[in-house]
Description:
By secondary structure, chain A is mainly α. Chain A has nine helices and no strands. By secondary structure, chain B is α/β, with parallel strands linked by helices.
Amino acid sequence: MLDVNWTIKWLTLCAQAMAENRLYLIELDRAIGDSDHGENMDRGFQAVLEKLAEVRPETPGAALKLTAMTLMSKVGGAAGPLYGTAFLRASTAVGDAAEVDPAAWAKALVAARDGIVARGKAESGDKTMVDAWTPAAEAGQAAAAHGAGNVLEVLVAAAEAAEAGAIATDPLVARKGRASYLGERSAGHRDPGAASSALILRAAVEAAA
Amino acid sequence: MTVRLVVVSHSEKIADGAAELAAQMAPDVVILTAGGTADGRIGTSLEKVMSALDQAAGGDGVVVVTDLGSAVMTAESALEFAGDPADVLLADAPLVEGLVAAAVAAQSGAGVEAVRLAAEAVYAHAPGGAEASTAFIAGTVTEGSVTGKGPDFTGDFELVNQAGMHARPAAKIAGGLAALNAEVTVNGVDGTAMTSLMTLAAGQGSVLHVEAWGPDAERAINYVGGLVQAGFGEP
C-alpha cells in the first residue's frame, strides 16, 4: 500500500533525479527544443521540496495536489501545465484515502495519462511524454489486474514501460510541441518530456523499495 | 454589470498593451492581465492566471483570451483547479483582435457566450479562417431558405463620416450587434466581427447593405442605420 510517506519520499527522489539529470535533459532538449526542460524540471521539483517542508500533506492525494499546483506555477513552458495536470488528475483519482492500493494506483496512472492527453492534445507516436505515459498506464493496469496485489509490481511495470516508451521516441518524427517545427530532423533524438517522465516513474519504484 | 475579460500572455508587456488597446474602445469593461511569469520572465504563471480569474469573478461571467501554446494550457489548468466554473469561457481567438472584439461586445452588454463568440468571429477573416466565414454565411442562407424567404429585414445606409469604416465604427457596429438576438451581415460579412467589417474598406459615400435574420432583426437594422446616419458621432 502506498501511503503519504511513500508519496513524499517519491517526490523527494523525483527532485533528486531532476537535479542529477538536469544536464542530460538540457542536452536532450537542446537537440530538438529550446534546451530549458532540465532547468525547468529541476526548478519545479526543488519548489515542490520547499512546499513539502512548509506544509506536510496528510494524504497521498494532498501531496499530489500540492505537487500539481507547484509544478504548474514553477515549471513554465508546456511541461508545467502538462505535469501539473497529470499530478492533479492522479490526486483526484486517489481522493482522500490514507493508503492507495495497487488497483487504485493503476487508475491514478491512467488518470494522469488522460490528463496529459487532454491538456496537450498529443497522441501516441507524436514523440511526446504521452509515449512514456500511455505504455506506463497500460502496464500498470495489467500488473494490477494480474492480481498479485503487490504494489511494487505495478510501480515496476509502469517504470519499465515508461523507460521503453521513452527510448522508443528516438526514431520518431515529432508531431507536437516545439520539436515538431524541426520535422524530419527531430528523428534520432529522445523526447525530453518522455525521458523526464521515465525518471519520475522510476523514482516511484525507488521510493517503495 | 458586464462580462469581464482576462488576458493571458507569455509577455507582461503584450498582456498590458493589448488590455490598454482594448480599454480605449471599451472603457467600462474590466480587463485583467496575467502576463509573464511571477518573477518577470517570459512564460505563463498559473498563480497569475488564477489571481486574475479570482479578481474577475463576481461580474456577469468571464472570457479568457490567450496567446501561444502553453498560455492556453495554463489557462485551461487554472480553470480545472477552479473546478471549471460555468461562467468562465476560454476564447479560441488571436490575442489582440480577439480581445478588442470581446471588449467591444462586453462594453455593449453582450452575455458571456456572445462575448466569446465575438472574439472567435475574428478568425473568420484570419488566414485559414475562410472555412469559418463560409460556415457563417452558409448558416444564414440555410436559415433564410428554411422559412422560404430572404432576410427578415434589410437596410441600405450611406457612410457620411469622413473616415468611413475604420476601427471605431466597426467596433460600435460589431459590439452592438453581438448583444442582439439576430444574425446580421453587412455587405456579406458577419456584422458581429469587427475585423471583418474593417476589411470591407468602405470609405465615405459607400453604401452598407445590411441583412438581418432573427427576433431582433429589425432592431439590428435600426441600430446600424442609426449609427451610420449619425456618422458614428464623427465629423
